[in-house]
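Hi team,

Filling in the usual template for the complex we talked about on Friday. All components are listed, including any nucleic acid strands or ligand strings, so the model treats them as one assembly.

SUBMITTER: L.P.
PURPOSE: interface mapping
COMPONENTS: two
RESIDUES: 533
SEQUENCES:
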Amino acid sequence: MSRPTLFALQVLVAVVCIVLWQVLSTVPVFGKILLPPFFFSNPLDVFSQIVKWFASGVIWKHLAITLTESILAFVIGSLGGVLIGFWFARQPLVAAVFDPYVKMVNALPRVVLAPIFALWLGLGIWSKVALGVTLVFFIVFFNVYQGVKEVSRTVLDNGRMLGMSERQLMRHVYWPSALSWMFSSLHTSVGFAVVGAVVGEYLGSAAGLGYLIQQAEGVFDVAGVFAGMFVLSAFVILIDYGVTLVERRLLVWRPTVDGRG
Amino acid sequence: MSTPTAVALEDAKVAFRLGDGRVYTAVEKAHLTVAQGEFVAIVGPTGCGKSTLLNVAAGLLKPAAGSVRIFDQPLAGLNRDAGYLFQADALFPWKTALDNVAIGLEVQGTPRTEALARAQQWLTSVGLGAFAGRYPHMLSGGQRKRVALAQVLIRDPKILLMDEPFGPLDAQTRQVMGNLLLDLWSADRKAVLFVTHDLEEAIALADRVVIMSAGPSSRIIGDWRVGLARPRDIFEVRLDKEFHELHREIWSVLKDEVMKGYAQSTQAAEAV
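RESULT (copied from the run log):
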């Protein structure tokens, strides 16, 4: 299928959904409105809410906060994941000792940590960053750990036979292998950084997209909730696109599915 | 012998501890020497421990008994005089062909610009001058082998260890690669230990062909000198009468071992 056709079909889906939503929430069917405005609002209200946010400029502050939190969570979580992942993979004893605890912490639903972080770190951005870090860290950690462990035996032997020292093996073999695994999970970890930030804001904060949604919900402003959700999805799609660009740049050496790099 | 010995395995025995605690003896009392400038091929049935023996010479594996001497010095740790060409793909997938070749010099501390310049020369001499910027996955199997060959040779090792290097390639590419190898080798005649399961390839390339018995506990059971004139062309040497006689002679010994090895591997499969 050609790109324009595909794009047209994709737009069509959105248009159909929005029109259905608009019609069902405003025009009575058999004397009854199927989507009561109190619970479902309607696309026009949601749209005007979004326009209002952007026109007045309130939204930028919230977007900036959420973006800052996400980036901090991603950077700190990735750094920690890479370092600990490397360390565990190179020191099997350490990995074995900590294994049950890593599993235990990873099994914990992170939402329950939010109140604790709020207590420890206050209602500012750092409690949200902490929540995001706990999500990002484990994804990166497991991937790096796997990446270092699964370095091809032959490539490793080749490095040794080419005269590499332990440090050079680190730099030329283990490190690129671990990074490639980390980057393969980039989309997931960036997504989780945003989730951490927004959930943290939702549970207690004074700014951010999560806060905006929570505020609207608190006064039964359904249009505000939907507007917040749409802005959030657009925000995530933009970030994801950025990740794709970075990925293409960094993973040129990797074969793509269709066999062309 | 007047020429110095590059590799000497004396009564080398290699054993592995299996998962269930038993000890598997792969190679028993192997005695093998490679003189300087000599091209020795090891041929044997599948699973006879040819590659194991090569790994011992490389220092990647420690013999359970016996000794390994490299230029009359006992080998401790990795064999720093040797270059190793692996059977499987061993290129660094995250480096371009050029960087893959240059890395051998870079780890020795050669400045990067110089390393890259010499790597480019080596790529040209293996016929891949125009492919310097490609990553391994963009190259064909034969091209990857050429890069691997350049990667090993750029370090100018005194000994070349090759573990069925052309095994994964198709028949024509193997012959082309064989000729390329002979060309490059004839320039400075390194000591070569070449493992293969292909007797024809062994006779066509080597000065000496060594036959191993079927495993486990395989031994070296034959050692033939190949008198064919050099320089050789792999395509033509196979038509030579001497080649045929030698082939028949060695095959009469090798055949039994191949059958034995085959029988054992099928039995082992049935036992599982």
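MY TAKE: The interface with chain A takes residues 58, 60, 78, 80, 82-84, 86, 88-96, 103-104, 107-108, 135-138, 151-152, 155 of chain B (CB under 8 Å). DSSP finds eight helices and ten strands in chain B.

Thanks, L.
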